[in-house]
Write a structure and sequence with these properties.
Blueprint: H1 9-17, H2 26-34, E1 36-42, E2 49-50, E3 56-57, H3 59-71, E4 74-80, H4 83-91, E5 97-103, H5 106-109, E6 113-114, E7 119-128, E8 145-148, H6 152-161, E9 170-172, H7 177-185, E10 191-195, H8 196-202, E11 209-224, H9 229-242, H10 245-255, H11 263-275, H12 277-291, H13 295-306, H14 326-331, H15 340-357, H16 366-377, H17 379-391, H18 399-405, H19 412-415, H20 426-451
Parallel strand pairs: 1-4, 1-5, 8-9, 8-10
Antiparallel strand pairs: 2-3, 5-11, 6-11, 7-10, 7-11
Length: about 450
Amino acid sequence: MRRIFGPLILFSACVLLIGCERDEHGLLDEIKRKGELVVLTRNAPTTYYYDRDNNLAGPEYELSRDFAESLGVQVVYKVYSSTRELITALSNGEGHIAAAGITITSDRQQLFDFSNSYQEVSEQLVCHRKSRRISKLEDIPGHDIAVPVDTSYISTLRKLRLTLPDLQWQTLPSVNTRKLMEKVWKRELECTVADSNIVDINQRYYPELWVELELAQSRFAWMLPPGSKGLQNAINSWMSEYSGEKLSKLMEKYYGFVEVFDYVDTRVFMRRIKERYPKYRKTFDMAAKKHNISPGLLAAISYQESHWNPKAKSPTGVRGMMMLTQPVAKSLGVTNRLEPEQNIYAGAKYLVKMHGLIKQEVEEPDRTWMALASYNVGRGHFHDAQILARKLGKNPHQWRDMKEVLPLLQEKKYYKDLRYGYARGNEPVRYVARIRHYRDILEEQEKSGKNSGD
């Protein structure tokens, strides 16, 4: 079995034998003097990536960007394909911090400094839905498991082997966790281990993935070169101020919808992307462009409303691709709600109208989520929920607070004093979550199609 951190032996010797550690404030002073913070990271939806508008995004990107701003310096990002490459790069002095969803382990703490933790996850054993079930730890030995080299998963498996001596696994170089999950999905590999946030994101694209067991609890932190006390203190001081509302808002932005995953629904959606969506793609694109909104978002709303069925009709009388009521359709100039193009253009126009009713001080993407919630539950009920939010000490201009308050409209002790009374407040919360879910899957499928030459 390959030993974890094998490539770092020489670096460790440097630290221990010839005293190559920096002085306490040397690294921080160097960053400020050069006006540049070099961040080592990985390209992944849980860390650092380009969004649909080709803007940089990701939890680690936003955290490191905001920290650099607090120092008054610019950020330079160096992107690596695996945890091993990233750790080796840090040991070689190629950057100041490694920010890539890195778990604190005792092995790593012997070689590097760490910031305070900013996110907790669980390490999960992930297999294919049709694989043999693993209901307890004692069932794991005998299953084919692979993990990337130099990851925290190896430490977890080693600890498990103390009580499960027959437990075996293979470590694979030049492959990341997402790629191994794809192999499990394709049934090229039986099982792997992954952090829960990575599973949550990728399970939507690989719906046959199945979480068998939680193996350990982990904490993410930034990894620093040894002897970086000054930089470590600066990061921890900044994080103590950033944690709370700012960090919660960041986590909501990137993970606030993942609990919506539904295997059957996701499989049906992916099938309809192939079977139904191509017929209406051009109309969604043109309507979105006309009203300056995301075509993926518009298509996701339509799927949530009608499953892209132009003849869809609800018991309450809403109809068509965007499920418009007769009064709304008439106000938007629609003459035939069953005509897909009219319905889609009208839906886009109505969404923009709802968006305009949300106060300007509400930041994106919260403003869009609130517009969608208003679209679903009605502007009056949503305004009631904002009034209730203020009474409860919540922020009526932040979606993470509003999605906690909206379900309270179903409870008499809360709705009895509100102007519009009772509402099924759970529905707009789930409505928004599903649209975010559909939009991300659709945009990922579109991107994959373009990259493959389809």
